[in-house]
Amino acid sequence: MGRVKTWRGCRVPTAKMLLAEGKIEEARAEASRIADDVTRYIRKRSTVAVERTVLRLLGVDGVDGEGVPVANLMVDQVLKQGKLARGVTRYFIQALAQTGGDVAALCSDVARGDADILSFQTLPEAEIRARGTQLAAAALARIAAQRTQREASLARLSGGQSPLLYVIVATGNIYEDVVQARAAASQGADIIAVIRSTGQSLLDYVPYGATTEGFGGTYATQENFKIMRAALDEIGESLGRYIRLCNYCSGLCMPEIAAMGALERLDVMLNDALYGILFRDINMQRTLVDQSFSRMINAYAGIIINTGEDNYLTTADAVQSAHTVLASQLINEQLAFRSGLPSSQLGLGHAFEMDPEIEDGLLLEWAQALMAREIFPEAPLKYMPPTKHMTGNIFRGHVQDALFNLVGVASGQGIQLLGMMTEAIHTPLIHDRQLALEAARYIFNNARHLGDELMFNPEGKMVARARQVLDEALDLLRDVRSKGLFQAIAEGEFADVKRTLESGKGLRGVVLREQDYFNPLEDALRAALKLDETDAGHVARESEGVNA
Length: 548
What we know:
Layout: H1 21-42, E1 45-47, H2 48-57, H3 70-80, H4 89-97, H5 103-112, H6 125-156, E2 164-169, H7 174-186, E3 191-194, H8 222-239, E4 244-248, H9 254-263, E5 268-270, H10 273-280, H11 284-301, E6 304-306, H12 312-315, H13 322-337, E7 346-347, E8 349-351, H14 361-375, E9 382-384, H15 394-410, E10 415-417, H16 430-446, H17 461-483, H18 485-490, E11 510-512, H19 520-528
Helix pairs in contact: 1-13, 1-17, 2-3, 2-9, 4-6, 6-19, 7-8, 9-11, 10-11, 11-19, 13-17, 14-15, 14-17, 15-16
GO molecular function: catalytic activity; cobalamin binding
InterPro entries: Cbl-dep_enz_cat, Lys-AminoMut_A, Lys-AminoMut_asu_sf
């Protein structure tokens, strides 16, 4: 795959919050040092999810009679013998080489309990690495083909106008999701997000096949991804628009689901270890290692990631804690750079969550949205609607969403997750989404260039607010850098939630790498993404594309 285009649809309005460039640079430098410390720690470790991801990308598929994925079975075989620190790949390659080279046949044998991948004769290290490199190249070629197909579709069809209109479907049944997704696309949606079944982030395996019985959402499976991708391609062709598909690669199977998304041409994926640590109590060692590898996959696949800082304001006050959102965005940016993601693939999250009873709350929201756009001019920022202060009063809710949409278009956001007037009542129905899409299109069209017509008072409330949030974020970043991110999380610096290095779900799935650890997919991705061994990411890799 040669040089490819990345989406550069975000408009940066001429209106500015007049922030000091020196302070932005200093904040970014502090975040870079924090990310360096984290990277040094996680580069020494692997996880069961990383190893399962490698197997999936090398062709391992299927489940046993009880629904346990074969990738889990193979990794568990190696983990139980205390050898996972060398990487599962070498044992898989030895088994494959000595059973005729048929991946499907080997998977069937393991699923039936007739094969243990540790039981095969050891091959010379050079042969293992040569075979692994060859298999990794084939895996990346499959991902590259999907990225090329996306780019071809975007060149031929309309890709939407920023802010992209993002709505959710969440029926629990993939086939009903398809019906609702088609309707939303016809009503003007640019991105369809399939909400994941409640609790899937805490499953240490990926369910298999098409599913029809999720809770509060639909299980993220590779077959479900394939079904929805085909449906959106079909409706997109009839509309003359490319409809982007979003799902979640977070939780205990973060890199596995990232790989599934890359293979089935998802376009946007929620991908944020800090969210998992704070809101799902996933062990920070486990999920930060998983995040690093999953983001390499996303980077190579051209998938825009969404981060979850917007959730901080659901547990903490939007006025008092706005600086924690900005500090986390800056840290997330630097961690993303170290996995090869360019700014154009960083859907950094923030939210419109002021208490509507606050005087001039709209001014504060607008100031913070413009501040984020000024600090991250190349990123397709993901702007989230009001949820915390939605009461079930649909009339006030519709007005709150209208103000949110006005700020979104005036501040040049990249991705606008539309609010629903029935928030706090039920999962959105088809007509709820239609009203939300109609209102957003009306406001976006009527205020498309509002941000280019305004200048803000250098001594006014909005500029003062943006400068205050930046100052407080810089102070927080200095503090986090001095104590380290792990300790800062333990002290509850983000979202008023405390977690520790040894607590949380999934810790038993973390292993220290041995000196001869082998992961051919990581090696291939690092080479393709031009990452050095130190993961240095101090300079933003803007929309450079990928050479493979």
